[in-house]
Amino acid sequence: MKFTFEPEAKKYMEKKNFQELTVDVTVSGGCGGGGVANASLRAGTPLKDKNTYKEEVVEGITIHYPSYFKVKGDAAIVGLENFLGIKSLVVENVFQEL
Length: 98
Known about the structure:
- The protein is mainly beta.
- About 10% of the residues lie in helices and about 60% in strands.
- The chain has a four-stranded mixed β-sheet, with no helix packed on it. A three-stranded mixed β-sheet has the order 1-7-8.
- Strand 7 and strand 8 (about 85-90) form a beta hairpin.
């Protein structure tokens, strides 16, 4: 899987001295139907079974991601979200394939 960093996200990771990131999937319940899978991103190594993750090193940052994730388009994009002054990393252009 190919990852790219938006410039603001890269600056944020350097400021926070992040060396490793983990992409996880969270499933939100749906009203009267199936759940919706959303990708989430956090600093550090996987908390779950590490054998189900692949890893890739991009610009000195190790990214752990589930083996069943696929990319929409050319690359998964790591960006920075700012909501009410709270900054968090996000990952875009990925989907779950089981």
